[in-house]
């Protein structure tokens, strides 16, 4: 059975994953508003992915005899100046999430909570992937620079994302 303090920490992470989902949905809405429909599609799948992360933690708490809390979520800031600015915010946000996952892992290690440690391996790998993809797209946006034609090509490329 999971400890009370670990349950609290995971419930906080459930809230943070839903908050990520909301932030990315706000980004998707922004991309749609500026007709970057491929970016909007990509970010909407990212929204779905974040909900699935929250639900992974939710299921895990129940598997360990704990109680998952359904959190209230604050409205995301949602101020984006450009495609580049929004993606920079995406990458910065994922770096923060990595720190949160690392914090949970540190706690699991200190508490000798081996099951939580092993469950978190998936999330540690996932954060490597999230930062990698974010960095790649930022680098591509740097190459795009002020070229509208190149931006539209990148938009087409992001439209092809199929996995969430
Ligand atoms: Fe996540
Ligand atoms: Fe991912």
Written account of the structure:
- With 164 residues, the protein is mainly alpha-helical.
- It has a single domain, classed as Ferritin, core subunit, four-helix bundle (Ferritin).
- It is built from 5 helices and no strands.
- It has helices at residues 4-33, 37-63, 83-110, 114-144, 148-159.
- Helix 1 packs antiparallel against helix 3 (83-110).
- It is elongated, with a radius of gyration of 17 Å.
- The model has no long low-confidence stretch (mean pLDDT 96).
What is the assigned CATH homologous superfamily? Ferritin, core subunit, four-helix bundle
Strand content: under 5%
Q: What is the second-level CATH architecture?
A: Up-down Bundle
Major sheet, described briefly?
none
From the 3D structure, determine the CATH topology: Ferritin
Mean pLDDT: 96
Please write the string of helix (H) and strand (E) elements. HHHHH
Alpha carbon gyration radius = 17 Å
Shape: elongated
Q: Bound compounds, please?
A: fe (ii) ion
Task: Specify the oligomeric state.
Answer: single chain
Say how many strands there are.
0
Number of separate structural domains: 1
Q: How large is the count of helical segments? A: 5
By helix and strand content, what is the structural category?
mainly alpha
CATH hierarchy class name: Mainly Alpha
The unreliable regions are: none
Distance between the termini: 31 Å
């Amino acid at each position: 059975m999971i400890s009370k303090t670990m349950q609290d920490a995971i419930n906080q992470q459930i809230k943070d994953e839903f908050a990520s989902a909301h932030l990315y949905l706000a980004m998707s809405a922004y991309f749609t508003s500026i007709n970057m429909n491929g970016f909007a599609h990509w970010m909407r799948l990212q929204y779905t992915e974040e909900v699935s992360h929250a639900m992974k933690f939710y299921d895990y708490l129940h598997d360990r005899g704990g109680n998952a809390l359904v959190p209230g979520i604050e409205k995301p800031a949602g101020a984006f100046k450009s495609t580049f600015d929004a993606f920079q915010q995406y990458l910065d946000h994922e770096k923060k999430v990595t720190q949160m996952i690392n914090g949970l892992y540190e706690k699991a290690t200190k508490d000798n909570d081996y099951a939580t440690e092993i469950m978190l391996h998936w999330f540690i790998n996932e954060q490597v992937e999230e930062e990698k993809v974010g960095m790649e797209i930022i680098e591509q946006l740097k190459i795009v620079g002020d070229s509208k034609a190149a931006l539209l090509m990148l938009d087409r490329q992001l439209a092809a994302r199929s996995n969430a």
